[in-house]
Every structure is written in C-alpha cells, then in structure tokens.
User: What shape does this take?
Amino acid sequence: MTTQLSLLIITLCAVIIISVLLSKIKKSSQTKLSTINPELTLEVQNMIKSNTSNTKIIKHVREKTGLGLVEAKEYVDNIK
Assistant: This one.
C-alpha cells in the first residue's frame, strides 16, 4: 500500500513539474516573438486601434511571420 502511495505522489509531482515547464516554454516563445519583431507588434497595435478585424490582423501576422493560424491568433491575442 505504501509503495502505491509513493508511486502516486511521484507521478503527481512529475505531472506538476512538466506542466510548469510547458507553461514557461510557452511564455518564453511568445516573448521571443514580440522581441524579435517589435515593428510587427507596433503594426498590430495600430491595426487594433483602428478597429481592423481580427481576421485581417491575423492574416497580416501570418504573411509577415509565416506562423500558423493558431500561433498567429495567440500572438494577436497576447498583444490585445
């Protein structure tokens, strides 16, 4: 019984550590994109201020960066 409990605790710790690391990696990649291309960030901010539709903004980001649809949407959402 104690062996099973120990394995459960170790498994839970591993899951928590992995989720924290994945979260940090995701935040890091988002930060890198905005620092790599600050001009694009300004363009997107201006498009948002001028009430350009999200679809057009995401399309613009995809054309400039080559990102996929999900990544471009996340990029735009992070700027908002």
Q: What stands out?
A: The chain is about 90% helix and 0% strand.
